[in-house]
Amino acid sequence: MPPLRSRMVARDLGEPHRVSSPLELLFDLTFVAAVSQVAGRLAHATESGHVGDSLAPFLMTFFAIWWAWMNFTWFASAYDTDDVPYRLMTFVQMAGVLILAAGVPDAFEGDFTTVTIGYLVMRVGLVTLWLRAAAAHPEGRATALRYAIGLSVVQVFWVARLALPDQGPMWVFFVCAALDLSVPPIAERPGMTTWHPHHIAERYGLFTIILLGESVLASTNAVQDAVEHGVGGALVTIALAGLAILFALWWIYFSEPAGEGLERRRDRSFLWGYGHYFVFAALAATGAGLETAVASSGHHIEAGARLVAASVTIPVAVVLVMLWVLHAPMRRMNARPGLLVATGVLVLLTTLAAPTVGIPGTLLLIAALLALFLTTTLTRPAPRRPTPDVGSSS
Length: 394
Description:
There is one protein chain. By secondary structure, this protein is mainly α. Helices cover 74% and strands 0% of the residues. It is built from 14 helices and no strands. It has helices at 22-47, 51-79, 84-102, 104-108, 113-136, 141-161, 170-187, 197-227, 233-253, 258-264, 269-298, 305-327, 337-349, 354-378. The longest helix has 31 residues, at 197-227. The protein is globular and about 65 Å long.
């Protein structure tokens, strides 16, 4: 049983065997519904040929999902006391996630009211935890108070946006998002929180698995629907090639030593943490693209072959390029950076072949390119470990 109440102090930066807690894993599961809703809406828009109208709502809604998850994740890495008040405030944030998930369909229609309410509920729980940290941990009080005040002020702007006609022009959303993103860099100026590099790397890896799992689920549902129209060679090829693509992306993502890189270059944490928005959004979009590809084999859809192919090739290319962007500054990569980017470009170019080789052939080409990249990486001599930076941020 957890203690009724314990003093909230910073976790040990060098704590050995720091792993995700069962509560964090349960917290992650509440995002499954939200991610599934977002990916499903994007897939349906692509099938109808109206992906352009849904791309902005997808990116905006996914920002709310990612930012809510990320804020709690970094706080928990530094201040996880796992007592009763902490668990209750985590429960409040989980309830907010479910409200946010319920508002995804309306958000794709331009109404972010329910999403904002869910966001507000999550902020209540998180700000309460930051205030508690400020009261119990004098060394980190200035940072914790900056977080609490900054998150509260920005949340006022999010709620005020609902009062504008049609919730205001789109640029208002991006201004509020920019303000939200500015809170951590400003809050951590007095001193960085004691987040654990290996714990953070594991948490991001677990969310990556959730996104890949949603892709599997979306593809499975699409296959079930397509089976009603008969199982053919195209459907089997798309299903197997899609699974190979997801498996290869998993392999590539976890091939890079993120925990070691963050431990060595804590000063790169903002680039690494924020940049994962594009990785996560691209993984969710990949699932939507694979669902669209399966649907194209089972029945008639409005989207042409090139659009269906692009719904897979573009997000896969984004994942590959962003992994280079995030890991190259860490000064150690298992993959050749140039080869990673080149593979992304080649994956993107397979879009042009879709009208000729069809969707099954396009997915096979993508899977083959990823397999070739993995083979080259695995047969490459292990890179030498760089010497730690003297005077790096800690």
